[in-house]
Amino acid sequence: MRKILLAAAAAVVAASVSFGASAADKLKVGFIYLGPVGDLGWTYQHDLGRLAMLKEFGDKVETTYLENVSEGPDSERSIEQLARAGNKLIFTTSFGYMEPTLKVARKYPNVHFEHATGYKRDKNVSTYSGRFYEGRHIQGLIAGKMSKTGVLGYIASFPIPEVISGINATMLAAQTINPNIKVKIIWVNTWFDPGKEADAAKALIDQGADIIMQHTDSPAAMQVAAERGKLAFGQDSEMIKFGPKAQLTSIMNNWGPYYIARVKAELEGTWKSEDQWAGLKEKMLVMAPYLNMPDDVKKMAEEAEAAIKEGKLLPFKCPITAQDGKEVECKAGTHLDDGQVLGMNFYVKGIDDKIPGK
Amino acid sequence: MQLVLEKRAERSNTIALVSPLIAIGLTIATMSVLFAILGKNPIVALGVYFIDPLADSYSLQEIAVKATPLVMIAIGLSFCYLANAWNIGAEGQFLIGAVAGSWLAVKTHGTDAGLWVLPAMLLLGAIGGALYALIPAICKVRFGASEILTSLMLVYVADLLLDYLVRGPWRDPKGFNFPTTAEFDPVATVPILIEGGRLHLGAVITLLVVVAGAVLLGKTIMGFEIRVVGAAPRAARFGGFNSNRLILLTFAISGALAGMAGIIEVAGPIGHLQPGISPGYGFTAIIVAFLGRLNPAGILIAGLFLALTFIGGEQAQIAMKIPLDVTKVFQGILLFYVLACDSLILYRFRLVSSSPKVSRGVA
Amino acid sequence: MGLLEAIILAVLAASTPLLLAATGELVTERAGVLNLGVEGMMIVGAACGFAGAWLTGSVIVGAICGMLAGVVLSLVFALMTLALAVNQVAAGLALTILGTGVSGLIGSRFVGEKITTAPKLYIPGLTDIPFAGRILFGQDAFVYLSLALIIGASWFLYRTRGGLILRAVGDNHASAHALGYPVLRIRMFAVMFGGACAGLAGAYLPLAYTPFFIPGMTAGRGWIALALVVFSSWLPGRLVIGAYLFGAVTILQLHAQGAGLGIPSQFMTALPYLATVIVLVLISRARTGGSTAPAALGTVFVPDR
């Protein structure tokens, strides 16, 4: 086995001499993706962000990505491979890459790292994430108005704080419109299984939900809602194509502006480690057009969006009563502080269910 | 006239030596065509896959790290397969081993427990994996339930158990509820061999397992029994060998090795327990076992070689923007060629004029 | 629409890809060949099925493309295991790796596209019958096809000479060969049938379930189909029951969650797999002398002269 490898080596070395010459002055930017770039959801949006950044800087940058990198033992190697290949700025786009990113960062102090949705930083590691709950608040308001049965169907992936805070933000907002609103939650234990997401949507509709919300990545639920004549909210990306008469709006992850800003800082030599937790105001989240709703509801949604952008509307405004009837401590005075939202592990009053594993 | 396959009187040692070379040659030829279709320079691409990872110590270390669990699991599986016991649930045993060993790491976290923690974790991992492997084995010998199916089903169950534990009881209290345990303490971590690299003690343990496997198979009565039961079950029965006992034994061995691989991976390269600790090691190891012809030395080479294609595939994504799917196709084709060429060790082609009359099956 | 009716409709749809793939694998295994590559053939079927339907606008063309893709992949497997006597477990796993790659390569350019799914049957009068109407007369063609296929397979296996020979080949290839039957050719056809069914099962997902293609969308259904075949102890009647039972557990656990029963979701998700193990043990235990697996299942056959 070795012999033929070595025999072929000479020819290859000769061939690769001409290969390595190009792209000397360009800033190399690397990306680690959890799914395939074509997952239509989480990774797809990150890749759109990469492409937007590439378009902005053109010849000045060169990007490389590794897709389908599992969050297990392979991720540290994948990140290090990008660092070794000369990438000076590396985005690792899933929570599970947190420890590997930090480990590699310690070995490569001159490379800058950006870890999405994590909470541990270092002098060359920044973190960034979206305030997804802001979009959930708007969806909750719309759902409160639009639901005739008073039952929302929620397809949830995994009981992590990001998902739980989304459910709570939705319900807190919906309760301001309809105090008796109910939510039915199905945990599918996957980010991504179109068939199962479709089954969950069907089950929720069959149990009386007339508005489907999801915290999973594929447009399957949207399409089921459309087929059954119900309404739904998209997730991660624009899903209107899969439910032209069903989609009310969608929380779209918009990483482009952030990637552009960070690459710009890197090019100008002003990059420094920070924590960017951005929402509608910074356009890290963008709401898809408000459709399939009466004008007054649309107006309400737009006003809420504007108020959130201006900082006048706080989705986790106190007082907030937890499921057990106790009032939640208000660490930021008028509202819950970021730590409480980032670590949220309780349901608010009015949710008639239990958090799995609690 | 037709071309038929027939069994050789004895295995061909010549083919045994050259068949991997033929297989790699065929793979290179096929992939060159595919690369050309994709508009990539085949010579450069093949260089990135096969040569670049061998060119520096970092990549060599990474190959060893990647091969460690594959080889360790595959050695255990080879025992099963030689004895005609079809354990395809090593993935589940890997996960349960990781869970069992991690239990101790979680319990001793933050205490001043001594150096005994890591050895105890490895032991627990091996026991956990062995016990989990014994479930399908017992179902098989006691009830006659197909071990292929039960061991496979238990993979999903193990996956969900791990998921439940790290999202519930074992979750890091300081981890914002994210689904991982706390980082293991230094005494619960597999030591690194070379400063600054990732090569860890698990690689050495794996080498010991390879040697032990070779001795056990080649030099002991148990090894002899395993080979006889697998090759000639009827003869083994007349010889008084208890095939049920061997099923239990080989399942326990392969479960223990898979479980140990699991805890080494968690306490080594990962450093904490979390969902998704295995990118399918248990299944890939099945292929490694067969590529290595169920022979310890062969498995070591096969494991390293498969690891090379993983590392090479990653470097191809970086250097040449070759999509990951191409690497999968590449691995699939390579596996088929190697398996097909290996077949010629035991069989040969012959041109015959008429259809055969007398025959027997080769089980 | 009542809740029970809705649940039955959902179960029928969720079970159909499982039943399709398992039917093919049942026939394959009855001929003595264990093809663990069902998942790989399914995912390629999904990619090619979607590609065919998107390019031509016809679900039927898509279904045919999916089947053909499954057949092509199964021929690779047949070449390896039958012509070259490669171990079937290893070849099946390699087939899944290859299939995942091929499907990604083919499918990547269709990501984000949408097609019109297979229409549901509508017979005025019949489909409108309360409760039973939609269940019996309101499905898409795949649902009826899957039932027709398993009935056809059952008829073939037990009522025809060809089926008798196929089972004989699976139970004792040496005797079948001695009697002059072309063992390898029969097995090749069985493997191809398995490939066609798996390809069709994969194509069902983008053609009828969700109108788009995403890499990896089969999400382990091929492995469940393999489990079903053993669960059924290689009997077509039990296979139908098993497929619908598995679909039912999947759907009911979602409903139980929606109803807020508060059982850990991981436990609910694990339930079908645990159920399979338990049922398998019970079935095997009820019978003396081991399981009813085709005696030559998974073994290599090389005619000896």
UniProtKB/TrEMBL annotation, chain A:
Domain ABC transporter substrate-binding protein PnrA-like residues, every copy: 27-308
GO molecular function: DNA binding
Annotated signal peptide: 1-23
Record keyword RNA-binding present: no
Entry keywords, A to Z: DNA-binding, Signal
Gene Ontology CC terms, in alphabetical order: plasma membrane
PANTHER family with a match to the protein in the record: ABC TRANSPORTER SUBSTRATE-BINDING PROTEIN
UniProt name for this protein: DNA-binding protein
Natural source organism: Bradyrhizobium lablabi
Automatic annotation (TrEMBL), chain B:
Gene Ontology CC: one annotated term: plasma membrane
Protein's membrane topology: Multi-pass membrane protein
Keyword field: Cell membrane, Membrane, Transmembrane, Transmembrane helix
TM segment ranges: 21-51, 63-82, 116-135, 147-166, 199-217, 246-268, 280-308, 329-349
Alphabetized GO MF terms: transmembrane transporter activity
Primary localization class, coarse: membrane
Taxonomic path: Bacteria, Pseudomonadati, Pseudomonadota, Alphaproteobacteria, Hyphomicrobiales
Subcellular location: Cell membrane
Domain of life the protein comes from: Bacteria
Organism: Bradyrhizobium lablabi
Pfam families: BPD_transp_2
The name this protein goes by in its record: Sugar ABC transporter permease
Presence of the UniProt keyword Membrane in the record: yes
Coiled-coil boundaries: none
Automatic annotation (TrEMBL), chain C:
A single GO molecular function term of this UniProt record: transmembrane transporter activity
Keyword ATP-binding: no
A Gene Ontology term for the protein's cellular component: plasma membrane
Main location: membrane
InterPro entries in the cross-refs: ABC_transp_permease
Ranges annotated as spanning the membrane: 31-52, 59-83, 89-111, 141-158, 188-210, 222-246, 266-283
Keywords of the record: Cell membrane, Membrane, Transmembrane, Transmembrane helix
Cellular compartments annotated: Cell membrane
Topology in membrane: Multi-pass membrane protein
Keyword Transmembrane helix applies: yes
PANTHER family listed in its UniProt record: ABC TRANSPORTER PERMEASE PROTEIN, SUGAR ABC TRANSPORTER INTEGRAL MEMBRANE PROTEIN-RELATED
Protein name: ABC transporter permease
